[in-house]
């Protein structure tokens, strides 16, 4: 394994009304996010159900909407050390972040209605934007989250960014579930031929819980002109609510 350099950062949320192109921070964030996403779709076309050809047609507003989704937390790996965000240093944090190269990403979305997560509905991607626990009393049902958009630049792979992204995303999801008084359940769908990603998730504690078929959008760079059927492996990780949180 190469020595780990750089940072993994959790994007602080802006005010919901700031996710528009006239806000400099939001626009730069969206530009960097969109360009990493398009690069991911180009360099790892077989890892995502969506295609470069589809996503390149979506404008910045689509990325801004995704960044502003209330129940999604975005994580980025960058090529230099960055101090964690703190409220007082809001502008400095973003200045530092924008001077770095984005080399990896991961999103955790939730809590979701369990039935809303399916490879057919949101193929290897974000599930429905629903909060299954809001307004309910805690029960034995866990609070359910999904991982999405996992990518590390080929030049930065095998140096621990994937592991650091997953650890940061899981910690955020678990804390959110715990604050709601629920066990934490996280799901991810991986193409059955994606050995590296399956190994990454299994190393982080996920286990295979099933598989489903999904529709893979045609990828021009792979010579495809029609959608194809793929098989997605479903992996899950469950962490129980700490006993002291249950007692509260
Ligand atoms: C999967 C991916 C994110 C891994 O990122 P990474 O930064 O290289 O991962 P890490 O260096 O943190 O590796 C963590 C563990 O994952 C596993 N792993 C990572 N790459 C692997 C590979 N090519 N083959 C086998 N196992 C691999 C190993 O267990 C590794 O631990 P180790 O280095 O101690 O052996 C990266 O290969 C990638 O972006 N692939 C293309 C996009 C993709 O497949 N996304 C997933 C969509 S579901």
Poorly predicted tracts of residues: 126-135
Number of strands: 7
Helix content: 25-40%
Main pleated sheet: 7 strands, mixed
Class by SSE composition: alpha+beta
Strands in their spatial order, largest beta sheet: 1-2-3-4-5-7-6
**Number of H/I helices:** 7
- Please, what is the CATH homologous superfamily? Gcn5-related N-acetyltransferase (GNAT)
Bound molecules: coenzyme A
Task: Note the overall shape.
Answer: globular
N-to-C CA distance: 42 Å
What is the architecture at the second tier of CATH?
A: 3-Layer(aba) Sandwich
β-strand amount:
25-35%
In total, the number of domains comes to 1
Radius of gyration based on Cα positions = 18 Å
On the 0 to 100 scale, the average pLDDT is 88
CATH class: Alpha Beta
What name does the CATH topology carry?
Aminopeptidase
Helix/strand order: EHHHEHEEHEHEEH
Pfam families: Acetyltransf_1
Region (Disordered): 122-147
Keywords: Acyltransferase, Transferase
Domain N-acetyltransferase: 55-229
Characteristics:
248 residues, alpha+beta, Aminopeptidase, seven-stranded mixed beta sheet, 7 helices, 7 strands, 31% helix, 25% strand, binds coenzyme A
């Amino acid at each position: 394994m190469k020595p780990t350099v750089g940072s993994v950062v959790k994007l602080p949320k802006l005010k919901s009304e700031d996710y528009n192109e006239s806000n400099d921070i939001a626009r730069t964030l969206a530009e960097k996010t969109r360009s990493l996403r398009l690069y991911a779709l180009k360099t790892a076309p077989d890892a995502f159900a969506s295609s470069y050809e589809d996503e390149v047609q979506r404008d910045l507003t689509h990325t801004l909407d995704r960044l502003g989704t209330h129940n999604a937390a975005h994580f980025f790996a960058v090529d230099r050390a960055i101090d964690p965000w703190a409220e007082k240093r809001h502008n400095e944090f973003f200045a530092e972040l924008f001077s770095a190269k984005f080399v990896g990403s991961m999103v955790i979305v939730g809590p979701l209605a369990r039935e809303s997560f399916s490879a057919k509905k949101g193929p290897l991607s974000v599930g429905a934007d629903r909060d299954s626990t809001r307004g309910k009393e805690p029960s034995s049902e866990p609070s359910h989250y999904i991982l999405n958009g996992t990518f590390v630049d080929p030049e930065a792979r095998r140096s621990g960014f994937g592991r650091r992204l997953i650890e940061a995303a899981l910690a955020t999801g678990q804390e959110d579930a715990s604050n709601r008084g629920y066990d934490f359940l996280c799901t991810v769908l991986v193409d059955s031929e994606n050995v590296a990603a399956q190994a990454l998730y299994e190393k982080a504690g996920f286990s295979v819980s099933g598989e489903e078929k999904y529709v893979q959008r045609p990828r021009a760079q792979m010579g495809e002109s029609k959608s194809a059927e793929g098989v997605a492996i479903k992996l899950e990780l469950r962490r129980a609510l700490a006993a002291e949180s249950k007692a509260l």
